[in-house]
Amino acid sequence: MTNKKCGFVALIGATNSGKSTLLNTILLSKVSITSHKVQTTRNQIKGIKNDGDTQMIFIDTPGIFNPKGKFDKAMVSSAWSAMNDSDAVIFLIDATKGITKTFDNIVAKLKTIDTPICLAINKVDLVQKDSLLKLVADIENVAPSLFNQIFMISAYLNDGVKDLIEWVKDKMPKSPWFFEKNMKTDLPLSLHLAEITREKVYQFLHQELPYSIAVKTDSIEEKNNAFTIHQSIYTNCENHKSIILGNNGSKIKMIGIKAREEMKNLLNKKVNLFLMVKVKENWRETPEFFTDIGLDFKK
Ligand SMILES: Nc1nc2c(ncn2[C@@H]2O[C@H](COP(=O)(O)OP(=O)(O)OP(=O)(O)O)[C@@H](O)[C@H]2O)c(=O)[nH]1
Ligand SMILES: [Mg+2]
User: Measured in angstroms, how far is the CA atom of residue 153 from the centroid of ligand 1?
Assistant: First the structure.
């Protein structure tokens, strides 16, 4: 008889609450991109954590927000589907934001599932203890007995995360492992590399621009102990294209340097990276931009 346990854990929360940061902290490795801008994660990103006989498959999801267009809707429904298919749910909230409209929306959905749910109040490094205690009391008022347990964590500082992992471990069902022992993620390499570049674009660009950006890996070639990678950065309009390029190409150059550095660490080989900026006005309505990252395109 096997003692193996294995299950799926959905990380659910408002955009910017720190879900991707938490995933990377749990894995002690960067798998999911993060940024201080909203709507960074666009699809489900799996991170695999093994502890003894237990395999925990954490699913980072797009943040919950009020979706408008087709692409937004596909992102949010991908988060809800992760929640529905999981063996345990971690609901992450930002301690500095408290109880918001999104909190109420998520609580309403959580009430419809039977899965064990814990609440992780994140970014506790940014708030006073008094206000935290009040927040917990308020939450217990609005959602009595919904949460199996409440944790106070700082995903960024890796504070309180160990106890959270123990909670998850305890909730995993008996099952053979789904992934090999040394796998950290099932993210295809081409997508992983595109995400790295998207993160760097976010770092270097003005607030509203990220929304209009998509990155695709066009080719990956390994030769003479080095990788040659070609990628396209898509944007909605010519104006945004010039912003991404910067004066004399200064911005795209910085994006390339930073992305290449991270790719080199991931691949452990020299990397030659070629970035092209392209305008595709309606990429948020184009099926391949959904399916490439595993989102459902609905007509
Ligand atoms: N001070 C502090 N900042 C944090 C903490 N956790 C996350 N952050 C920051 O919060 C911002 C958002 O983090 P992400 O991990 O990208 O948030 P997310 O929930 O994945 O966001 P979406 O993908 O847009 O839904 C980043 O700037 C993080 O560095 C924390 O514990 N403390
Ligand atoms: Mg994220």
Answer: 12
The 3 state secondary structure assigned to 220-277 is EEEECCEEEEEEEEEECCHHHHHHHHCHHHHHHHHHHHHHHHHHHHHHCCEEEEEEEE
Cβ(22)–Cβ(92) below 8 Å: yes
Structure tokens at 50: 């093994």
Ligand 2: centre distance to CA 263 (Å): 19
Q: Does domain 189-291 have CATH number 3.40.50.2000?
A: no
Contacts of 249 (CB under 8 A, 6+ apart): none
| 76-124 residue pLDDT tens | 999 999 999 999 999 999 999 999 999 999 999 999 999 999 999 999 9
| pLDDT tens digits for range 207-258 | 667 788 999 999 999 999 999 999 999 999 999 999 999 999 999 999 999 9
Q: How is residue 62 annotated by DSSP?
A: P
Does the C-beta of 156 come closer than 6 Å to ligand 1? yes
Hey, where are the domains in the chain? 5-171, 189-291
Determine whether the shortest distance from the Cβ of 123 to ligand 1 is under 6 A: yes
Mutate to test the pocket of ligand 1, among 34, 60, 121 (most ligand atoms within 8 A of CB): 34
Nearest alpha-carbon partner for 58 in 11, 121, 113, 106: 11
Residue 292 CB-density burial (10 A; 0-12 exposed, 13-18 middle, 19+ buried): middle
Provide the edge-to-edge strand list for the sheet that holds 5-13: 45-51, 54-60, 5-13, 88-94, 117-122, 149-152
Report field, pTM of the whole predicted structure over 0.90: yes
Give the ligand 1 atom nearest the CA of 62: 25
**Ligand number, closest to the Cα atom of 202:** 1
40 Cα–ligand 2 center, Å? 5
CA distance 206 to 208: 6
Superfamily of domain 5-171: P-loop containing nucleotide triphosphate hydrolases (3.40.50.300)
